[in-house]
Amino acid sequence: MIVRVFWLQVVDTDSWRERAMQNWEREQTLTASRGTISDRDGDILAMDAPAYTVVVNPRVIQANGLQDEVVDGLNRLLSKNKDELVKLVTAKDDKGNYLINREVRNEGWKIGEEKREEIQGLMDELELQLQSEGKVPDSGINLIAENKRFYPRHSLAAHILGYTDRQGQARDGFELMFDEQLKGVDGFARYKSDKKGVKLPSADDVYQPAKNGSNIKLTIDDTIQHYIEEAMREVYEQYEPVSMTVIAADPNTMEILGMANLPTFDPNTYWEVASDYSNYYNHAIRSTYEPGSTFKIVTLASAIQENLFDPNAYYKSGSIRSGGRTHWDIQRNGWGTITYLEGVKRSSNVAFVKLGYEMLGKERLTNYINLFGFSGKTGIELPGESLGILNMSRDIDISTVPYGYAVSVTPIQQIAAISAVANGGKLLKPQIVKEIQDPNTGEVQVIQPELVRQVITPETARKTGGYLEQVVADQEQGTGYNAFIEGYRVAGKTGTAVKGDYSDNTRLVASFTGYAPVDDPRIAVLVIVDEPNDQLGGGAVAAPLFQKIVSQTLKYWGVPKTEEAAEDTTAAKAAALQPDTRVAPELSDMSMKDIKTKLLAEGFVYEVLGSGSSLVKQVPAPGTALSAGQRIYLLTEDAAQMEIPDMRGESLRDAMEILNLMKVKVNVQGEGYIADQKVTKEKDGRVVYLTLKSSSESLQGESPEGEPEAEAGQESGEKDEE
Fold it and tell me: Which residues are annotated as catalytic?
């Protein structure tokens, strides 16, 4: 024994010391929080949020005889198959002993707060039953706190945001493109502990803090995004197209204000449409189309730039033999001998063959197409951007390019081109990121607009806009008359392209692109409806959608009208004197559904407080003057009884406005945005404690302090209607 002790303590001491150190030392991962994604006003679109994984303990469940109760309860609450649940609660190891922990995948994996409360209710019920039977009150069900990616607006802007899978891996969209900046870097803590795992004081401790991911503010406006998606759904239901795409941008900066596609998906439950990849597909940047007549904008602007367009010159419409083929107008007999301006308004193919193929010629036409950006990708900060195709080798193809055939383009290229006309001739890089905020240092990087090149002169752009305005304003000859907005000057162009075999007119791509107001462009919009079920063109299908989105947006921004209504009422005079001033509408005696519809239609920003079904009070009161973008709060319960809403991520100003309405006391610590809140009841009533972080820090979810010691469960003819 003495020899053996000597051997262990002296001869082999280094080996045993190393083994001992391995038992003493612990290393804990400090998980970095993934950065938030918000809209241009700071409204959260993607964030880390608490999540819970349901775990069952077969050993405890069998010992307490709760197999049937647990299986029935989890089947009811999680909709998980009973046979699979039975396998989980009866799982044994190789020696025939019941296992300790099994995760309920996938139905019980990373569930939300509402479902957690239901599971907790089942646990409490079973534990009360066991207690009454004199047994240890352990239901054999546990909830492990974790984090998950949460998208509070659900399907809103889904194709922009993309999603992260259940393992937290970025899979598409902005989440994937900016994954490195968003995910941050995990830290660690290395220390010595006793046999129970309790940390021991030591100078050898190593601590590397986690570096949280950047918070990124997008250029999109969630209100405009909502307008876009609501308007799209109406058209989608009516015409049942294969897909739809809408992009809205600020033409002066090329900041994307909204981008949407249908069909779509909810990033929170992305797996529900996993069998149909078309739901995930961002057509706005990945799909290419023959644009049809919307491409005539390029031909028109190019001809004006080269002083080739005379709006008062005449030509014979109907058909023309050029480039080795015959080109026809939509009205095959034409409209007789008409001016080129009338040809633009009627979207005459013959006029654009003469302008593009005969006057400009191949070299100059190709040059302007390249200048407008159709020969390269735009560089938008989203994954998977495609590149269009330009067929300019044969005269028979070149002659159709001026009116949008033999060329395929992406929607994002088109919105950049129309914006160049709107902003005075500058081609800008489409921008989706507005700010990048580092929560670790407080540094904020503001992304500036990026000029690609000057395509046409400001004077050419002004003239082009004036002619495109007549396409919309002329209610008799203009193909875009359905895009007309009372009181605003609108420029635009319709398009209808035949897909596949040009002799088959059943598969069409209807589109419209334009901007407003013409004299001071604030918004440019592109609408594409792919294969509507009715053989209608862009003027009938796409232009009304453009009109609805733009009119709602201009009202939302408080953009003054350039024309007054015919009725010379006192209200109209007041509006003329103060065009940016709006008043809160009268909402009493209306259902909540009608209230929401009215406010959205008229461009008001609102927030519902409480869980009641009817309006109790509105703030500000009816008739109160509102500044542009000011919120209207809809109280659906008595303020004293109403539950305090979750205000994490909100500014202190907005939070105080809400809490003052609810008449509660507020205690504030820190500066910036609300990172945490706690509600307590004191003698004088409820008190809300708000913890603020610096303005560069948006809401962060709390990282779990450690991983559960649980065994993983099983993861079971050429034609253009315009």
Answer: 293
